[in-house]
Specification:
heterodimer; A: 116 residues; mainly beta; four-stranded antiparallel beta sheet; 12 strands; B: 112 residues; seven-stranded mixed beta sheet; 11 strands; 0% helix
Chain lengths: 116, 112
């Protein structure tokens, strides 16, 4: 069974400092990996995804994530945090298989708090 | 344009009411999804539609009835809900079932 672990319920970072939100995964075969962000009382917004190729993926709003196959990790990063980045972040995984629906499994979410 | 719209934004209903949630996308996506999200939890998949046909039902109670009238619209009909069904209901769409899902803003449902 596939799974996603986001080990930190909350991450606090000072505005202007780099941020990292951690994610590790378990899936059969190769993964497709995703990060979504959710602001209060809103839906999930797609940030970035890893499908294949370069292990460093760049996404929206200056976020990037690094795929590490040996550590089965896909940590989300940003060089300089903004107060407006404060939100709930979800990591998600699905098997890299074609030919039909593959279930997307979400982590439990990490709340990012950027302190002014 | 990666916009998925949902109406209403908020809904309060009694346990004997019948109501419907609506979702719309004009991105030409052929797969659409309903998710349920409780507070501080990840979204839980309810239904998957592919080419307007129901392809996945994650053992959802029959008081939730999905409908896909056309490739742009997805409805969720609600009847005889329970208070524990109160949640944020999210609609998503994707180009195909293997592609990235894009989510709407959700409908906040409260069942009294």
């Amino acid at each position: 069974a596939q799974s996603v672990a986001q080990p930190e319920d909350q991450v606090n970072v000072a505005e202007g400092n780099p941020l990292t939100v951690k994610c590790t995964y378990s899936v059969s075969g190769n993964p497709y990996l995703f990060w979504y962000v959710q602001y209060p009382n809103r839906g999930l917004q797609f940030l970035l995804k890893y499908i294949t190729g370069d292990n460093l993926v760049k996404g929206s709003y200056g976020f990037e994530a690094e795929f590490n196959k040996s550590q089965t990790s896909f940590h989300l990063k940003k060089p300089s945090a903004l107060v407006s980045d404060s939100a709930l972040y979800f990591c998600a995984v699905r098997p890299a298989l074609s030919g039909g629906y593959q279930k997307v499994t979400f982590g439990i979410g990490t709340k990012l708090q950027v302190i002014p | 344009d990666t916009e998925v719209t949902q109406t209403p934004k908020h809904l309060v209903m009694g346990m004997t009411n019948k109501k419907s949630l609506k979702c719309e996308q004009h991105m030409g996506h052929r797969a659409m999804y309903w998710y349920k999200q409780k507070a501080k939890k990840p979204p839980e998949l309810m239904f998957v539609y592919s080419y307007e046909k129901l392809s996945i039902n994650e053992s959802v109670p029959s008081r939730f009835s999905p409908e896909c009238p056309n490739s742009s619209l997805l409805n969720l009909h609600l009847h005889a809900l329970q208070p524990e069904d109160s949640a944020l209901y999210l609609c998503a769409s994707s180009q195909g079932v293997v592609e990235t899902q894009y989510f709407g803003p959700g409908t906040r449902l409260l069942v009294l």
